[in-house]
Amino acid sequence: MSRNNMQRGIRAAALLTSVSLALAGCAGGDEGTGEGGDDGQVTLRFAWWGVDSRHAMTEEMIDLFEEQNPDITVETEPGTWDAYWDALATKAATGEMPDVVQTVDPYVLEYGRNGQLADLTQFGDVLDLSPYGEAILTDSSEDGKVWGVPGGLTTYSVWTNPDVVEEAGLEMPDDDTWSWEDYAELTTEVPEAVPDAVGSGQMSFYAEPFTLFARQHGEQLWSDDGGLGFSKETLVEWWEYVADLTESGGMLSPERSIEENTHDGDAFARGEMAFKPGWATQLGQVGALNDEVDLQLLRMPGEDGAEARGDWVKPSMHYSIAESSEHKEAAARLIDFIVNSPEAGAILGADRGLPPNPEVLAEIQGDLGVADQKAAAYLAERLAEPENPRPLPPEGASEINAIFLRLSQEVLYGNLSPDAAADQLIAETEAAIG
Question: Which positions carry the signal peptide feature in this UniProt record (predicted)?
């Protein structure tokens, strides 16, 4: 088993663009499914990111796969999110991409469009895609090609500690009607009533809360024609809201947000925060607090209780096959086992999101932990609502994550006005997507 000590960085898109022509040559060595190399003993390389607990359960799952498939040996290459994407791009550029890779949007589309990922529809004999509808495969598909199978489903939410809300003398909000103004009032009142507590986790370090905010304004992060789908006015309004709430003390300061940038070490995990925006399926990572407090999942605030709440359900990550792999059929067998086997589902649980295969979820749901049970119920409610699809991100879209983080910090530290930061984000993002 190999272990990758990769260096920090996530901006793979720029490197992918610069090496795409070279990769076209690297990708041409394998024909079809690579059946010629799969007749005898096959060794696959499988790379993913995560923490130690994910690594351990993935290794356990692979042991079971190898036991049931004695003709396949899997060499594992686990890593951390911070370093995964630059390392993967470097391996792709040298023709050394692992056979099976864990991907996520928008990277899965960027790799697929550049010819670096195999079209999974060609492996129908060993990889069953029928449990996954068109909506679930949207983030990893284009022009009839499917470059990734979802490894889990998730949706955005507000993690809520009712004990802190009660200690502050407040009532739990009605998340079907609460507005952004309601959220600001509640989160500001928490530290006023409980000096050691924080009202809300920081919202502006990630693009997802703004994406939801833009959708509530009838806009999108991306447009149907591959450009920006939101207006400068909406972005300025968002940053003004977050900056005002941070200044009032209702939202965690940027300094503390950077210091406490782990699920196990932040104020919410210590029981000192009322609300924290985050992916519903990651609530279980809070750990011991789940056994001590009846934590709740609320939907994000809406615009004065508007019906169009902006929620969306998405794959939390995907499994893909490198186009350069010499053992694509064996790789497809591994992916099929991971996503379609209840035995694998029982080991992996909801670590990568709730299983998108309904049969697997039904099989293991009763054995999930309390937090994951809550996530499953919350996700089911969102899936039952009318779908509000998101346009596919253009090539280079992954750059917006780093741009958004950097400029949000500039706004919160007072170095840039929301107006100036919005101009800069739009200019930089438009340059990135070309």
Answer: 1-24
Measured in whole angstroms, the distance separating CA 42 from the mean position of its chain's CA atoms is 31
CA distance 210 to 219: 11
CA distance 257 to 240: 18
For residues 255 and 123, the answer to whether their CB atoms sit within 8 Å is no
Angstrom distance (rounded) from CA 68 to CA 65:
5
Q: Which residues of 379-403 are buried (b: 16+ CB within 10 A; e: fewer)?
A: beebeeeeeeebebbbbbbbbbbeb
The dihedrals phi and psi of 248, each to the nearest 5 degrees, come to -75, -10
Query: Which of 153, 176, 133, 135 lies closest to 388 in space, CA to CA?
Result: 135
Over 50: is that where the pLDDT of 213 sits?
A: yes
Look up residue 206 and give its two tokens: 């990630």
The CA-atom distances, in angstroms, between 40 and each of 37, 43, 64, 127 are: 7, 10, 19, 19
- By the 8 A CB rule, do 103 and 112 touch? no
Q: How confident is the model at residue 27 (pLDDT cuts 50, 70, 90)?
A: very low
pLDDT digits (tens, 9 = 90+) for 360-396: 999 999 999 889 999 999 999 998 888 878 898 998 8
Per-residue confidence (pLDDT) for residue 308, from 0 to 100: 74
Ordered DSSP codes for 91-108: HHHTT---SEEEE-TTHH
Instruction: Say what the alpha-carbon torsion angle 8, 10, 13, 18 is, to the nearest 10 degrees.
Output: 0
The strand pairing partners of 279, in sequence order, are 156
- C-alpha dihedral sign at 301, 391, 146, 58: negative
CA distances from 123 to 23, 300, 336 (A): 22, 39, 10
* Helix, strand, coil % in the chain, rounded to nearest 5: 50, 15, 35
- In the beta sheet, which residues pair with residue 297? 159
For the chain, which domains are there?
12-154+314-381 (3.40.190.10), 155-312+388-433 (3.40.190.10)
DSSP calls for 125-174: TT---TTS-HHHHGGGEETTEE--EEEEEEEEEEEE-HHHHHHTT-PPP-
For residue 18, what pLDDT is reported? Answer: 34
pTM reported for the whole predicted model: 0.83
Q: Residue 423 region, left (φ>0) first, then alpha (ψ -120 to 50), else beta?
A: alpha
Nearest-5° Cα angle at 20, 18 to 21: 105
